[in-house]
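thoughts on both lines:
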Amino acid sequence: MKKLTLVVAFCALLALEIVPAHAQEADVGIGFGTLTVPSSSSSTNSGTQQMGGGLYPSVSANIIFKHRIGFGGEVAWRSSQNLYFGFQPFRPILFDFNGVWAPNLGKRTTLEAMGGIGAESVRFYTGTLSCSFVSCTDYVSSNHFLTHVGAGIRYRVWHNFFIRPEAHYYYVNNNNEFNSNQAARFNITLGYALVPE
């Protein structure tokens, strides 16, 4: 998880450094929230196992262009492992890439509405190390395509630093390991907006 966080943070900072001059702004943020899941669904066969609960940190970045339209990305993961049916440690990771609409609501306040696609990667930890030519891991992944919509209100609290309460909805295709294909994440993000001169 530390490597993933470092890679995402590096990519976000790199994106801020290469923001085209005609971009109106860019921002990066670190968030903390939780994931909730409906209690049951007839579309899956995994009984009562849920993916929700626990702390879900996140890292996000957005670039906004003319007419307050842009794009962004985010990754959120469960901070600690959970137990799959009481015995198998696992951790869900959610990635999404979005189109973003960010109209200003006031001098310090901006609405951020987004929609896009991504992936859910559930890591099931095996307890044994498996090595390849490139690296070693102690997990196997189950990956699924997802669609995502979300919204937040970004409020600039001091200079270019902001706080953004937000809500996200995910529909995960063929999420057979869990009791539902749907999930909602509620988050508070702290971040920094870069506005080119």
User: Anything to note?
Assistant: The radius of gyration is 18 Å. The longest helix spans residues 2-17. The helical segments are 2-17. Residues 46 and 177 are 6 Å apart (CA to CA).
